[in-house]
Specification:
Layout: H1 2-19, H2 44-61, H3 66-87, H4 99-122, H5 127-156, H6 162-170, H7 190-210, E1 219-220, E2 223-224, H8 225-239, H9 243-262, H10 289-310, H11 312-323, H12 329-336, H13 339-354, H14 365-372, H15 382-388, H16 403-434, H17 439-458, H18 468-494
Antiparallel strand pairs: 1-2
Helix pairs in contact: 1-2, 1-5, 2-4, 3-4, 3-16, 4-18, 5-7, 5-8, 7-8, 7-9, 7-17, 7-18, 9-10, 9-17, 10-11, 13-14, 13-16, 16-17, 16-18, 17-18
């Protein structure tokens, strides 16, 4: 019975990683928002089974990793600060938005995010389980890369009428129509797909590529499945034409090479020729790594410029400097279409400054938006105007567009400090793994550090607790650290 349960849990975990790419599934449970929800991860279905069969029992019976305790404190504090507006009977300035339903919906999204994090963190009990998780994580990546490659065919216009074929297939996995000039993967929009690639998968396949590590038995000299996936991921990322995604992806790749060059290196030990690392990448002289980085960045910039010449959306990033001599940050953001985001960030920060200790309660940024929005001419930011002005059949969608600023605005300094401690613990765990002499731990460490960096960069693009990207990342880091520390402690106790 116990063996059958373990097998069923593994099947559900594999299903969770395979369903990970689908974040806006058309058929979504009404209890999680139904048709009104913007984020609809398909992984909810296997997650429900895992929470009942694995996550809750292990929370009760097994030692709880420290990061889980910290993030649980954040949840408790979120409940406390959200009760205050209810007691004060805060009224909403928007007729279609009310206080209590919005708070309840926010807690559902936060509970969903934490359920993902707890499940990914607690499933691995051994190093074998870590490898199992990574294999199925890569399987999910392979699935979405194939899908993205099919979408790239209509962008390149290699097959006439192919866009119509993919548009019909896309309806099976997302509620949004395809953009004919950009690819969206299995997500809502191209930018979401880019965020997904960079935060969830790129750190792990890049880290494995840099450390010449693979969880698979198959390899041909220096060619591994992770390296194939890494190159494929970067190529597909380019077809999203996401400005933030392309810049952030370049930053993650660059950081990865820097960590490899300047990171701790184990002492050289004499080995037999047959046992030496035959990876071409590993045998590149240390002094030439910087040359490779500059060549890589040069290639990326050329690609970026080429894509810009084909897309007005990207070329506006540098065209601004040809139409004006005096640089102004706000005007620049407005010119490239980021003006509304800058307004959201400013407004959220003002809300935080007005409620620095407790914040305004989870989900309540919208209720205070009209009071703290900076004075400006809204016609210069049409995207912002569309969001704050209600129209028939359309609900106002007002969000912070910055994950960390939202936390400070809605939970105050205390909530922000708790979440910051949570991030610092994960970063410390990543560094601990990175400086290890063990090759597998070192890979997990550099991948974790890249993941944290990718998350911090991506916080400028999202603010929803229901988006699985950060919780998957946090869960893998927590699991890797917990398993390897437990393994070392067990070897110490046994005298090995």
């Amino acid at each position: 019975m116990q063996k059958s349960l373990k097998t069923f849990i593994q099947i559900l975990m594999a299903g969770l990683f395979l369903s990970l790419p689908v974040t806006n599934f058309p058929f979504f449970p009404a209890s999680f928002g139904g048709n009104s929800a913007y984020v609809r991860p398909l992984l909810v279905y296997p997650l429900l089974g895992l929470v009942v069969l694995m996550t809750l029992p292990r929370l009760i019976s097994k030692p709880i990793p420290r990061p889980i305790i910290i993030i649980t404190l954040f949840l408790i504090w979120g409940v406390i600060v959200s009760i205050i507006p209810v007691m004060r009977n805060v009224q909403s300035p928007w007729k279609e938005v009310s206080l209590l339903p919005r708070e309840i919906r926010t807690f559902i999204t936060l509970a969903l995010g934490l359920a993902i994090y707890f499940t990914i963190s607690l499933f691995p009990q051994t190093i074998k389980d870590i490898r199992f998780s990574l294999k199925w994580l890569y399987a999910g990546l392979g699935l979405v890369l194939v899908w993205g490659s099919f979408q790239a065919l209509y962008v390149t216009k290699l097959i006439p009428g192919w866009y119509d074929v993919m548009a019909k297939l896309q309806r099976l996995v997302t509620i949004q129509k395809l953009n004919p000039t950009r690819i969206s993967g299995m997500t809502y929009e191209p930018s979401s797909f880019a965020d997904q690639l960079i935060v969830i998968w790129l750190p792990w396949v890049l880290g494995a590529s840099l450390e010449n590590y693979t969880v698979f038995k198959w390899r041909r000299k220096w060619i591994t499945i992770e390296r194939i996936l890494c190159v494929w991921t970067v190529a597909i990322l380019a077809f999203t034409l996401s400005r933030t995604g392309l810049v952030l992806g370049m930053g993650v790749v660059g950081l990865g090479f820097l960590l490899k060059i300047f990171g701790p290196r184990p002492k050289i030990v004499e080995k037999k020729k047959s046992d030496q690392d035959k990876s071409n990448l590993a045998q590149i002289p240390h002094k030439y790594w910087l040359v490779l980085i500059f060549l890589g960045f040069g290639f990326f910039l050329i690609l970026f410029y080429f894509l810009g010449t084909q897309s007005v959306y990207i070329s506006r990033m540098w065209e601004y400097f040809t139409v004006t001599e005096n640089f102004d940050l706000r005007k620049y953001f407005n010119y490239i279409g980021f003006g509304s985001r800058m307004t959201y960030w400013e407004t959220a920060w003002q809300i935080f400054l007005s409620n620095p200790i407790f914040g305004v309660g989870l989900g309540n940024f919208t209720l205070y938006f009209s009071k703290f929005i900076p004075y400006q001419q809204l016609t210069k930011t049409p995207q912002l105007l569309r969001h704050i002005v209600a129209s028939p059949g359309r609900t106002r969608v007002i969000s912070v567009k910055h994950f960390l600023i939202r936390i400070f605005a809605e939970t105050g300094m205390v909530g922000g400090a708790i979440f910051t401690v949570f991030l610092l613990i994960l970063t410390a765990a990543a560094i601990y793994l990175w400086i290890s002499k063990d090759k597998e731990e070192k890979f997990l460490g550099i991948a974790s550090l890249l993941g944290v960096a990718a998350f911090l960069g991506d916080t400028f693009s999202f603010d929803s607790f229901a988006i699985p990207n950060p919780w998957i990342l946090f869960g893998l880091i927590t699991a890797a650290f917990n398993v390897f520390v437990s393994s070392k402690n067990n070897r110490s106790i046994s005298g090995e």
